[in-house]
TrEMBL record:
Name recorded for this polypeptide: DUF6985 domain-containing protein
Domain of life: Bacteria
Pfam families: DUF6985 (PF22481)
DUF6985 domain residues: 10-165
Length: 200
């Protein structure tokens, strides 16, 4: 028999049959994608071993669900760069003609299709909560695209879906060498004085 957990933000999540540490919600309107409805999955979560996960996840979701299309367009340049970097690495192909003809970088979102949202705890370093949006995209059909938001507040990674939440984790770098992640740290240190001491 399936087990359910309750989020104060997105309601009931049902335990997945094949992965006991995955919990899936019903479809939720996502303002970041013009209220497109997507399921949200709490991933790698064992309630008996992580007593604060749901509260921290709810806090991250509260921040993330405040993001809208303006916030999405604010990172269009990063999504566009991901696309152009891929196209520069492959042979000229007529299948990518529309992508090469993009004039306004905000148009890149017409070629990105979000599929699911995962909420998970980073297994290393500060062990913070991250929200990861898994997407299909028209240029990288094999590995797709992921958008990762630390604490649901700010984009800290955009890449193919490689199983890592941060560039630091993916490439064995320090967090200070991870450009987007270190920008988050600088912003948070400025606006939320010394919150990081709780992770020391």
């Amino acid at each position: 028999m399936s087990i359910e957990i309750t989020s104060k933000i997105i309601g009931q999540l049902r335990q997945e049959e094949n992965f006991s540490d995955w919990w899936k919600s019903s479809e939720i309107e996502i303002p970041f994608f013009d209220k497109e409805k997507l399921s949200i999955i709490f991933m790698d979560f064992e309630p008996e071993h992580d007593k604060t996960f749901i509260a921290e996840a709810d806090q991250a979701l509260t921040s993330f669900l405040k993001l809208n299309s303006d916030d999405r367009n604010a990172i269009s340049n990063l999504a566009y760069k991901n696309c152009m970097d891929f196209l520069e690495a492959v042979e000229i192909d007529s299948a990518y003609k529309a992508l090469r003809q993009i004039k306004n970088k905000n148009e890149i979102w017409n070629f990105i299709q979000p599929s699911e949202i995962y909420v998970t705890r980073r297994p290393y370093n500060e062990r913070d909560i991250y929200i990861q949006i898994a997407c299909e995209c028209d240029w990288e059909q094999e590995h797709g695209l992921q958008l990762v938001f630390r604490q649901g507040k700010k984009l800290t990674r955009i890449s193919d879906q490689d199983g890592h939440l941060t560039e630091a984790d993916a490439y064995g770098k320090s967090d200070s060498e991870d450009k987007l992640l270190s920008q988050f740290n600088q912003k948070e240190n400025k606006n939320e004085t010394e919150w990081w001491k709780f992770w020391k």
